[in-house]
Amino acid sequence: xxxxxxxxxxxxxxxxxxxxxxxxxxxxxxxxxxxxxxxxxxxxxxxxxxxxxxxxxxxxxxxxxxxxxxxxxxxxxxxxxxxxxxxxxxxxxxxxxxxxxxxxxxxxxxxxxxxxxxxxxxxxxxxxxxxxxxxxxxxxxxxxxxxxxxxxxxxxxxxxxxxxxxxxxxxxxxxxxxxxxxxxxxxxxxxxxxxxxxxxxxxxxxxxxxxxxxxxxxxxxxxxxxxxxxxxxxxxxxxxxxxxxxxxxxxxxxxxxxxxxxxxxxxxxxxxxxxxxxxxxxxxxxxxxxxxxxxxxxxxxxxxxxxxxxxxxxxxxxxxxxxxxxxxxxxxxxxxxxxxxxxxxxxxxxxxxxxxxxxxxxxxxxxxxxxxxxxxxxxxxxxxxxxxxxxxxxxxxxxxxxxxxxxxxxxxxxxxxxxxxxxxxxxxxxxxxxxxxxxxxxxxxxxxxxxxxxxxxxxxxxxxxxxxxxxxxxxx
Length: 476
Fold this sequence. Notes:
CATH topology of the largest domain: 2-enoyl-CoA Hydratase, Chain A, domain 1
Number of helices: 11
Low-confidence stretches: 1-24, 450-476
Oligomer: single chain
Distance between the termini: 17 Å
Radius of gyration: 23 Å
C-alpha cells in the first residue's frame, strides 16, 4: 500500500548532509547482521536523541564482537531500528528496504493512481469511514477515469470502509472505489464504481498559481504548493515572476496538502515571499552533541538567499517583498511547510486559515550502508537496498522558536479555524473553494467569523508506501 499519514510524506525536511566522521570498516561483519550493524552505527552517529538511548551510547559496547552479539538478537533490521528509537517523542524516523522508492518520493515520483484523498468518520456510525477526493493529479489513472475533487466514496471492492480495515483495503495497487452521496455525513452508496490502477507518476507540486484582481488596488496572488521538491525550484521561481510582474498586494500560499520536503527549497520560498531579508537568518538547526561539536556554528544556520543554486540551475530569486502573507493549512501541513511559517513569523505578519498543522519542527537525512553513510560512499554495501531516514535535528526560527504541537489558526498565530466541508469542497483555485474564498474575504475585510468543521479520522494523502512488509509509513 502506498500510504502516508500526513501526506507524501514526502516528503521530510531533507537537504543538509553534515556527516559525522566515522571509522572505516576494518572488521568483517557477519553477513546475517550487516544491515543491523549499519542501522546501529547510523543512529549512533546522527540520531537526534542518541544521548537519550542507552543502547546507542558510545561506550555501550567495548568491542565489535560485543556489538555483534547484541545485533544478533534481532530477527530483522526493522526490529532493531524500532527498538532504538526514542518513542513516543520521535514520531517520524523510518527505515526502508528499498532506497530507490524513497529517492523517487523526494523527487515527486511515486507509485500512485492519482487520487489524493482524506478519510472521515461517519456522523452516526462512527466506526464507519468514508473517503473524499481532495484533488486529482493530471494525466493519472484517476484523471483519465473521471475522478474529480469532491467525490465521496465509502466502499473498496464492495466492502464498507471502517476504522479497522481501511489500511488493508487500500493496500493493493489496483482496487475499485464505490461512490456515495454525502448525505450530511452518513454517505449512501450509489451504483457507480471506478477501478483505479497505480503507476509511476511525477507530480508537479505547483498545482495552481494565479492572481485574483479584487478591484480597489487589491491584487491577490494564490499559490497551491503541494511539496517542497528541488527539481521544481525553477518552476516555483517562475510562478513568483508572474506574481512580481502583476504587482500583487497580497499573497495566499495554500499548504493544506503539503507534507514537507527540502529545507533549501523552503528557504527559497521564504525569500520569494519577502526579498528584503537577504542573508538574514531564516532558520537554525540543532543536531545531537556529536554533530554539533564537529562543525562550526554557521553550518547549522540557514539564511535567506537571493539566488537559486542547487547544482542544476543558478538564477536570481523573484521576490515580491511582502510584509504579510496568508497560509491555508490543515492536519496534512507539516515539516518544511511549518518551517516556512515559523521562519517568516519572525519577520513579517503571518496569518493562517484552516486546521491545526502536524507539529513536525524536525528534519531528517537519508543514511546508506557505507563508511560515511553516503550513497555510493566508501565501502558502499551492494548486498541490500536498506536505508534509514532518522530525525537528526530540530529546527527553529531566528528567535529560537518552534511549535512542536503544530500551528492552530487563531490561537498559535492570527487566523481563522476552518475545516474542509466534505459536502461542498468546491473547485481548487476558484472562489467556490470555501477555504480560498474565506481567505480572500479575510484579506479584504479582516473579518473572521465562525465556521463549521467536521472531525477527520485521517488527514492523510494516500500516496505511497515505503515498505510493504511491515507497512512503515513515510511521514514528513
